[in-house]
Each structure stands twice: as structure tokens, then as C-alpha cells.
Write a structure and sequence with these properties.
Blueprint: E1 5-9, H1 13-21, E2 26-30, H2 45-57, E3 61-66, H3 72-75, H4 78-87, E4 92-95, H5 98-107, E5 113-115, H6 124-133, E6 137-139, H7 146-155, E7 159-166, H8 178-183, E8 201-202, E9 212-213, E10 228-230, H9 235-241, E11 245-248, H10 255-274, H11 283-291, E12 297-298, E13 322-328, E14 337-342, E15 351-355, E16 362-365, E17 369-370, E18 386-390, E19 400-404
Parallel strand pairs: 1-2, 1-11, 2-3, 3-4, 4-5, 5-6, 6-7, 7-11, 10-12
Antiparallel strand pairs: 7-10, 8-9, 13-14, 13-19, 14-18, 15-16, 15-19, 17-18
The structure holds iron/sulfur cluster (SF4).
């Protein structure tokens, strides 16, 4: 049984580092050109080279998305861009468009090519098509059941990548123009405004200012609003199926989200391979997935086609049980103090939770805090202020400090 790769989103350098440190085997990112997610920070070529060096030092891989559907004018710069990302040392490119696929093969022929989920590969014949052309990996559409994935696995040799966690489109990925029509932001260029999550009313042509509610229940109607995908409970089945890469979605999500979700999946995959027969997912790992901002979870198409149970009709808001309040910059010294960058206001006297890449999570009361000038403070007043905090146990650099959300 082959251990699958755990693949995480890297919307910027900090997220890339956190993904690697918290347990991803590989990350995917976009350059400033030719990738989707135009509003995540994305990487310049200099940053990309630095990112690859960082990841490779940790034994991790970096894949770059080149998965937009370019128009003729976009193609002029593409060969130069492809040579540049090859020179950065990336481990593969993710493409959707057959024209881009051909240009990658012509320009940087040794580069492994992954077929993006934007290509909507939903059957073994599609996967074989790409495999015959020389693709090394195909990212399967999210709209497949385990039975279909198993059939594809048996019929094809290419590596298969499957989304295990993250947001779902209400359409096939990339086949939606809602955002283009309603906001002029092109979802196929990474600019989706997510209008599928908006609240809709009915308007009659001759009464333009009267909004007639279309009600599923008392909360209103969010007719296109999907729950988020979570296949955490299905990891053993997906491993047995022979999936090569488990993908976490969310280049726009926070560092806290990336670290937390990656780490939960890392722990589960490692525990499974340590003892496949005795494996049981721990409640504490599942609880981790509730701490970050998310919509209700669904297993999507995993067992059967989706129903109304897989959508959220009553709200478009997110939920989470914890807030991310600080990032540890240095390990604790001999007196138990560590330097922390505040990310959300911290106060002496409140209970904090320390979440670490390698060591166990623990809670404590924040008892003592100093500012940059060595003055003892009760509250850190500035965003991203650097403070010194006394910890009850040793903490590692890149540990995260959280606080339970106040109950509403
Ligand atoms: S509007 Fe919703 S379904 Fe359409 S592309 Fe954007 S996220 Fe996906």
C-alpha cells in the first residue's frame, strides 16, 4: 500500500511555510500569471524560486498552476513564463487547457504535467486520454463517487489526485459564469466573487424595487450554497483505492486554516500507516477541523449524487470554534518565554490554546506578557505587535495561539 501525498494550498510564502511545517508533502501555488486565484497573493518568480528552495530543503514538492484558459494574446508570454518556472526548480505544472498542455510539452518537455480539476476529468477514458498524451497525473473532478474513482484507478496508470477537503462549486469546477455575469469577475481567471453563496430574491420586471422572498425556511434561501467537502472519515478507503495524492483546497484561506487542516490529515494518514488494522480516527483530529472557518461539512459525491442535505439554504456565513490570535516566532527560552506576533488581540487572564507542528496541543491561562520595550502589558494594543509571553510548557517556532470563540 503506497502512502499518498498530502497536497496543500500555498496562497503566499507564509502559507507555504506553514503547510510544509505542519505536515504537507507537497504544495501547489500560482505565479502572478496564468494561474487561477487572482486574488490570493501569488508568487513572483523570485518568490517562487525561494519557495521551491524552502520546500526542497524539507523534502517537499512544489507544483505550479498554469490552469487558466488563455486567449491567443495570453499565449505570447507563455513559453517565456514556462521556462522561468522551470528554472525556479518546480516539480510539476498543473494545466487545464490542451493548448497550454502542448506548449508545456514543447517548451519544457521534461516537466511533469498534472491535469487540473478544471479539465473536469470524470471518467477513465478522459484519464487515459491525458495519460496517452503524456500527463503524469490527473486531478479528478470532485463530482465522483468512490466506486467511480476505483474504476478509474483500475483502468489507468497515471497518478490520481483527489480533493479531500475544502469548498465545493455548485457547478462543475470552472464551468460557471455566475460571477462573470453578475460581477464581471471571471471565475476562470481566479476572480470568482462566489455569487453562488449570495441570498436571492425574486423581482418582477415591472416592479423593480420590490423583492419577493423565495423561502426555503424562515432564514431565507441561498439556492446555490454548497457545504464544504470533508472526506476525513474516508481516508482508509481512499488509500485502499490507490489514490496517489490527497488535495486540500483553499489558497485564499488563512495560515491558521492551512496549518490546522494539513496537520489533522497528516496525523490521520500517519496513524493509519503505523497501524492499518487498528486505525480509528481520533475525535480530537475531527475537532481540529471545526476550529477553522468553514461551512457545514459534506462528503459531496463520495457515496451518491448530492441532495438538499449537501447544501445550506439558510445562511451563507461561516462557522468556527476558535480564533487564531498569535504566531510563535521563537522557541521558549530557559525562563519559559517566547516571542509571539499578535494576529488578533490577546489579553492577560484569558485561556489560550497552543497548537504546534510537532508537539501536543495544550491550553493555559495567559498570565504574563511584555511589549517590545520590556514593559509588562495586559493587552497588546497593535495589530501584529511583537510580544513576549510566558508559557507553561516549551513551545516551538511556528506554533499557533488560539482562543475559543465566545458563544453567541
Ligand atoms: S460562483 Fe460558486 S459555483 Fe460558480 S465558480 Fe464561483 S464558487 Fe464556483
Amino acid at each position: 500500500m503506497k502512502k499518498p501525498e498530502l497536497l496543500a494550498p500555498a496562497g503566499n510564502m507564509e502559507k507555504l511555510k506553514m503547510a510544509c511545517i505542519y505536515g504537507a508533502d507537497a504544495v501547489f501555488l500560482a505565479g502572478k500569471q496564468f494561474g487561477l486565484r487572482a486574488f490570493s497573493d501569488n508568487f513572483t518568480l523570485v518568490e517562487m524560486a525561494e519557495a521551491v528552495q524552502f520546500a526542497h530543503r524539507m523534502g517537499k514538492k512544489v507544483y505550479v498552476t498554469v490552469n487558466m484558459y488563455p486567449h491567443n494574446s495570453d499565449l505570447i508570454e507563455l513559453p517565456r513564463y514556462l521556462r522561468s518556472i522551470r528554472n525556479c526548480g518546480v516539480d510539476g505544472v498543473i494545466v487545464a487547457d490542451p493548448g497550454v498542455f502542448r506548449m508545456v510539452q514543447d517548451t519544457i518537455p521534461d516537466m511533469p504535467i498534472h491535469i487540473s480539476t478544471q479539465a473536469n476529468s470524470t471518467n477513465w477514458s478522459s484519464v487515459r486520454f491525458w495519460e496517452d498524451l503524456g500527463a503524469s497525473r490527473v486531478v479528478l473532478a470532485r463530482e465522483l463517487s468512490l466506486r467511480e474513482m476505483t474504476e478509474i484507478r483500475r483502468s489507468c496508470k497515471a497518478e490520481l489526485e483527489v480533493f479531500v477537503h475544502g469548498a465545493m462549486c455548485i457547478s462543475y469546477s470552472g464551468r460557471c459564469l455566475l460571477s462573470n455575469y453578475l460581477t464581471q469577475r471571471d471565475s476562470n481567471r481566479g476572480q470568482c466573487a462566489q455569487p453562488c453563496r449570495w441570498k436571492y430574491n425574486l423581482v418582477e420586471e415591472k416592479r423593480p424595487n420590490e423583492f419577493f422572498p423565495i423561502m426555503e425556511d424562515d432564514n431565507g434561501t441561498y439556492i446555490f450554497n454548497s457545504k464544504d467537502l470533508c472526506l476525513f472519515d474516508r481516508l482508509p478507503e481512499l488509500i485502499a483505492c490507490g489514490i496517489d495524492s490527497f488535495k486540500i483546497e483553499g489558497r485564499m484561506k488563512s495560515v491558521h486554516y492551512v496549518a490546522t487542516v494539513v496537520n489533522a490529515y497528516r496525523r490521520a494518514i500517519d496513524a493509519y500507516f503505523a497501524d492499518p488494522q487498528g486505525y480509528q480516527p481520533k475525535q480530537e483530529w475531527l475537532d481540529e477541523l471545526l476550529k477553522v472557518s468553514h461551512r457545514d461539512y459534506t462528503e459531496g459525491f463520495y457515496e451518491h449524487k448530492t441532495t438538499e442535505e449537501d447544501q445550506i439554504y439558510g445562511t451563507s456565513s461561516y462557522q468556527q470554534t476558535h480564533d487564531f490570535v498569535g504566531l510563535v516566532k521563537t522557541a521558549t527560552d530557559a525562563d519559559g518565554y517566547a516571542t509571539v506576533e499578535q494576529r488578533n488581540n490577546m489579553k492577560v487572564g484569558e485561556t489560550i490554546e497552543v497548537f504546534q507542528p510537532n508537539n501536543e496541543t495544550f491550553t493555559q491561562v495567559l498570565t504574563t506578557m511584555f511589549d517590545e520595550n520590556g514593559e509588562e502589558i495586559a493587552v497588546a494594543p497593535h495589530p501584529q505587535q511583537i510580544v513576549r509571553i510566558k508559557f507553561d510548557r516549551p513551545v516551538e517556532p511556528f506554533a499557533m495561539i488560539r482562543r475559543a470563540c465566545k458563544k453567541k
